[in-house]
Design a protein that fits this description.
Layout lengths: L2 H4 L10 E9 L2 E5 L5 E5 L3 H12 L2 E6 L10 E3 L2 E6 L3 H20 L10 H21 E10 L6 H8 L4 E5 L7 H4 L5 H8 L4 E4 L2 H15 L7 E7 L5 E10 L6 H9 L1 H13 L5 E8 L6 H14 L7 E8 L6 H21 L7 E4 L5 H10 L2 E4 L8 H9 L6 E5 L12 E3 L4 H13 L2 H17 L2 H19 L19 H4 L1
Parallel strand pairs: 1-4, 1-7, 4-6, 7-8, 8-9, 9-11, 12-13, 12-15, 13-14, 15-16, 16-17
Antiparallel strand pairs: 2-3, 5-6, 10-11
Bound molecules: 6-O-phosphono-alpha-D-glucopyranose (G6P).
The site of 6-O-phosphono-alpha-D-glucopyranose (G6P) has 6 residues, from loops.
């Protein structure tokens, strides 16, 4: 049975929501106190802060997983959000989330830094879970609503949702890179993924290069050509009538919640904490800082290697410099993440063992998540921020550091393989694979004349302060509304869609 036949239209709910966000995780985290009582807290992060006002204004709902396996929760309200929890079984968490999302797609979309694994059982679970999300969204959206689907975990949702609810306007945003055709081609289910995505009216990517990669893949595997960022698609419904729509694809680089960072950076408590951090470290001349999820895409090993060599070469000493590396725990049950932790912790242990003195430590390695206040205090305390990702859709840490540096001091070493590097041109840009180049850049950032540092930081701040995450969401949603108005009701004979353009790819794999 094809996906199309299995997805019958759903009845439009009478008390549905006008604006629906669909993402793998709900925008809340659960706290459990000592007595076992649980409560919800809004998750930190730009996406959640950007969409909260839209939710409040537009009668919004958010469909997503609440983070615990095998638990069914009824929809509930929390601050401005109406939350619709999606149930995932323990096996689905293994196969859809840890497996297909994070051990197939994640490495495939990040330059195959780790080897992607391809398992049919993971794919079936991905498809089944995407169907569940699509159905929940279809049962939540009001007539003619706007539904905004987020990220690589849910790439099949747009087309599934369009089949269930042809009346809604569908946006999709890919927060991670979209790979070049040569890499995407490895995916046994490449056509099905492209079919899924092209159910949307607008697909947003971080960089123009990601949008181009996507358009090339669509041309190659679906036989549909984009012209000026738009392409026509059509499909036959179960009743045999044709439906047609226009898919637009473009770049919408995401940003951060600038106001909340500025507010924290201005707060006397956070500033006092930044001074305290420096004092506790013995007031070193230079604090280098890395802040990442413990992920192999972040180039943490490359950074630590460069730092260790600088200590070994005598360019840095533990008496005058320290590297603080915050590595927040992530996807800990996925093999490649376990291996990375071993690798990084082994490196830190060796370097510290070799260079530490009783009073000084080379690398302060912190395998914890911290409250946002503490992160901003770290940004204020650090002289040089190190962002050395091997591939990163955007990297918001780089933008957060810039937003926090209100006095325009500090230097940012930034990998050219991040989306952020396209906007923060005044950073000290590096190729993290080039360890000598990285070492030079770290020393250059440390020794940069004050006037040059201020000039660079001022220019980066201008960029970040004038392009915050609210601008990002407004731009995407305005374009989505515009494209949807223009793209519906395209005459059927003008459409050239996947249905007409079979590709040479073997369909059976994709079903
Ligand atoms: C990246 C992805 C997000 C994801 C986040 C945390 O930023 O783009 O979709 O939510 O990492 O990863 P996790 O697997 O914990 O949700």
């Amino acid at each position: 049975m094809s996906a199309q036949q299995s997805m019958e239209e759903v009845t439009v709910p009478r008390d549905g929501y006008d604006f629906v966000v669909v993402s793998n995780r709900l925008p809340v985290d659960r706290d459990v106190d000592e007595a076992g009582n649980s409560s919800w807290r809004r998750s930190p992060g730009g996406l959640v802060s950007a969409l909260a006002p839209v939710m409040a204004q537009r009668d919004g709902a958010w469909v997503g997983w609440h983070g615990a396996p095998d638990e069914t929760l009824e929809p509930f309200d929390h601050d401005v959000f109406h939350l619709v929890p999606v149930m995932l079984s323990e096996l689905e968490v293994k196969r859809y989330y840890e497996g297909f999302s994070n051990a197939t797609l994640w490495p495939l979309y990040h330059d195959v830094i780790a080897s992607p694994e391809f398992h049919r059982t993971w794919w079936y679970a991905y498809r089944r879970v995407n169907e569940r999300f699509a159905r929940m969204a279809a049962e939540t959206a009001s007539q003619g609503a706007t539904v905004w689907v987020q990220d690589y975990q849910l790439q099949l949702v747009p087309r599934m949702l369009r089949r269930l609810r042809p009346d809604v306007t569908i946006g999709f945003f890919n927060h991670i890179p979209f790979p070049p055709t040569e890499i995407f081609s490895q995916l046994p289910w490449r056509r099905a993924v492209l079919d899924g995505l092209t159910g949307a009216d607008l697909i947003g990517f971080q960089r123009p290069g990601d949008a181009q990669n996507f358009q090339r893949c669509v041309r190659k595997y679906l036989g549909v050509q984009f012209t000026k960022g738009a392409a026509q698609f059509s499909e036959s419904t179960a009743e045999g009538t044709d439906t047609t729509w226009t898919v637009n694809a473009g770049s919408y680089p995401i940003s951060i919640d600038v106001d909340s960072i500025k507010e924290l950076a201005d707060s006397p408590e956070v500033q006092a904490r930044a001074r305290e951090i420096r004092e506790e470290l013995g007031n070193p001349e230079t604090i280098f800082l890395g802040v990442d999820r413990l992920d192999y895409t972040k180039g943490i090993g490359h950074r630590i290697k460069a730092y260790g060599e600088l200590l070994h070469d005598g360019e840095l000493s533990v008496a005058d410099s320290v590297l603080i590396q915050v590595a927040s725990p992530s996807r800990e049950r996925v093999d490649s993440y376990r291996q990375l932790r071993e690798l990084v912790e082994g490196m830190v242990g060796r370097i510290n063992g070799q260079h530490d003195t009783i009073s000084h430590t080379a690398i302060r390695y912190l395998h914890h998540g911290y409250p946002f206040e503490e992160m901003v205090a770290l940004y204020l305390a650090a002289d040089v921020m190190l962002v050395t990702a091997l591939r990163d859709g955007m990297n918001l840490v780089a933008k957060e550091y810039v937003a926090a540096r209100r006095d325009r001091s500090g230097a940012l070493v930034l990998s050219e393989f991040t989306g952020a590097a396209e906007q923060l041109r005044q950073a000290v840009l590096v190729n993290p694979h080039d360890i000598d180049g990285l070492k030079e850049a770290m020393l250059y950032a440390r020794d940069m004349p004050r006037a040059e540092a201020r000039k660079r930081m001022a220019s980066m701040r201008r960029q970040v302060l004038t392009h915050d995450v609210v601008d990002w969401s407004q731009r995407f949603l305005a374009d989505l509304a515009g494209h949807a108005r223009a793209g519906r009701d395209t005459p059927a004979d003008a459409a050239t869609g996947a249905a007409e353009h079979g590709s040479s790819d073997r369909g059976s794999h994709d079903e």
